[in-house]
Amino acid sequence: MFTESLTLYTFAMSHFSEKIRWTLDASGLSFTEVVMTPTLHVVPALRMGGQGETTLPILEVRQANGELEHIQDSTQILQWLDEHRGPLAVMPRHPGLSEDIMGIEERFDAIGNDVARYLYHAALDDDARVLAMWTQHANRHQARLVRLFFPLTKWIFKRRLRINAEDAAQSALRIQQALAWLDGRLSDGRQYLVGHQFSVADITAASILAPLACPDQHPIYGTAQFRQGAGHSPTWLANRPCVEWVRRVYKAHRTGQAGLEVQAVA
């Protein structure tokens, strides 16, 4: 019996947040998800992370005596879960399997920002659409603040994530390379990326690619509103076996989100 309680601070649309949210759910671990509002998350994330970074997700561990520990970065969170909550079924400790799983986790984490950059390059000029996503879990006061500072936030965001035509084109190439690798991995008809069981390798690849595959079970990217706003898919994305694989993995294994206790905070 674990005495610590777990709280996961996320962005609703973050594929890195989805990776940890899904891992916790698939592992049957009880946790509370706190959905944060972009822009307003900066100060809390800096305070909790303590390393000058504003990235999410952050896992907060509250000990029985009230002491708090914060783990920032999705890979660091996986390592903490493996050490303190393992062995998890989705993180088997067999040496060969474990190395392969974490190698694939690293491979798809590496294109996480590329996916975001590619999508935002097309979407960031649609202020209404971006604001609707960013304020989905905000209260009225929070939404008003996000809208007020959006021109400045947008300017900073574009430069920090290098959202421009040249970098977006390079990101598209890196995404295509990852998709080609995944198509090759799946070419033997396998159901899962490593061995014969569902693992963090599948969770990571499917989570990172969810904004492109738009599986029905994703709380943001599976909605009709997102699909309509996304417009036409690029030709290099159409009819790829790996895209259909992402949708199958979501349909088969992404079943527990409705039970989460979700709180929205600044």
What would you say this structure looks like, in words?
The protein has 266 residues and is an alpha/beta fold. The protein folds into 2 domains: 5-89 and 256-265, Glutaredoxin, CATH 3.40.30.10; 97-253, Glutathione S-transferase Yfyf (Class Pi), Chain A, domain 2 (Up-down Bundle). The chain has 11 helices and 5 strands, in the order βαβαββαααααααααβ. Strands 4-3-1-2-5 form a 5-stranded mixed beta sheet, with helices on both faces. β1 (5-10), α1 (15-26) and β2 form a beta-alpha-beta unit. The chain is globular and about 50 Å long. The model is unreliable at 258-263 (pLDDT under 50).
Strand share of the residues? 5-15%
Number of strands: 5
Question: Which CATH C-level class of the largest domain is it?
Answer: Mainly Alpha
How many alpha or pi helices?
11
CATH architecture assignment of the largest domain: Up-down Bundle
Oligomer: single chain
How is the CATH topology of the largest domain named? Glutathione S-transferase Yfyf (Class Pi), Chain A, domain 2
Q: Over the alpha carbons, how many angstroms does the gyration radius reach?
A: 18 Å
Average pLDDT: 90
> Largest sheet, described in full?
5 strands, mixed
* Unreliable stretches: 258-263
Strand and helix order: EHEHEEHHHHHHHHHE
The strands making up the biggest β-sheet line up spatially as 4-3-1-2-5
End-to-end span in angstroms?
A: 32 Å
User: Given the helix and strand composition, which structural class is it?
Assistant: alpha/beta
